[in-house]
Design brief:
single chain; about 325 residues; mainly alpha; MetI-like fold; about 75% helix; about 0% strand
Length: about 325
Amino acid sequence: MANFLFSRLLQSAALLFIVSLIGFGIVHLAPGGPLAQFALTPGISQADLARMAHEMGLDRALPIQYWEWLTRILTGDWGRSYRDGRPVLDVISGRLPATLELILTGSLIAIIVGVWIGVLGAVKRYSVFDMLATVGAMVALSVPTFWFGLIVIYVFSVNLGWLPAGNRMTVGGDGGLLDFLHHLIAPALVLAFVEVAIWSRYMRSSMLDVISQDYIRTARAKGVPERSILWRHAMRNAMLPMIALAGVELPALLSGALVTETVFTWPGMGRLLLDSLGYRDYPVVMGILMISSILALLGNLFADIAAAVVDPRIRLT
C-alpha cells in the first residue's frame, strides 16, 4: 500500500505540473488581458497601464511569469485576485462549499436512482421497463445540460412556481435548511440527469455479466431465494466496476457543475470560474483549475483504494 501511494503521488504531481503548464499557457495567450477592463477607463494613460502591468507581473516573459507563479504556489501563496485584491484561496474557499453541496447531492441522486434502474433493467432484461430505461438513457445523454436546466426553470419555476429559478438562498429570507433544500432541488436534479443515465447503463451491463456466472446458477440450483442471490451475491461483485466509475465521473461532475451553476446562478466554483474568465482574473482561474485537478486525482485514488478494500483479489502495487 505504501509503495502504491508513493507511486500515485509522484504520478499525480507530474500530472498536476503538466496541467498547470498547459492551463497557464492557454489562459495567458487568450485574447485580451487583465488590463483590458482598465483600458477603457476615462482619463487613464499608457503610463498608468504600464505601471499596473508591472505591479501584476504582466510585463515579464511568459516563462518567467509561470516560474514565479509556480514557486509561489508551492510555498502556499496562490496569489491575489486581480478583481478585488483578495487572496485566491479566500476567494475560492468562499465558493467551494456550494459546489461540493451540489456535486455530492447530484452524485447521491445519480447513484441511488441509476443503480436501481440498472439492477431492475438487468433482472427484467428486454422488458418494457428495460426498453423504456434504455430509451430514457439515450435521451438523457443527448440532451445538453444547459437546455435541460432552462426547461426545468421554465416548467417548475415560471409556469408552476414550485421551485426557485436560481440562487442558493432566498434573498432577504431566514436562510434556513428548508429554504436551502428548496433551492438545491432543481440544480441537483439537472446535474444528476445525465449521471443517472451513465450509472444505469454501466450497472445494467455489470449486473448482466454477474448474473450469468456459474456461481449464480449454482446458487439458484440449490434453491437460494432470488432476492438473496441478487442482493447478497450478485450486487457486491456488480458494484466493483461502479467504484471505478465513481472516480472517473468526478471530473464530469465538476464540468457539469460549471454549466448548472451558470444556469441556476448557483454561487459555486463554476460560476466563479465563468466570472473570472470574463474579468481575465488569471490567479483565480488557475487556482480553480488546480483545485479541480486535485479533486479529480483524489477521486481516482480513493476509487482505487475502495475497490481493493471491497475485492481482496485486487492488489495495489
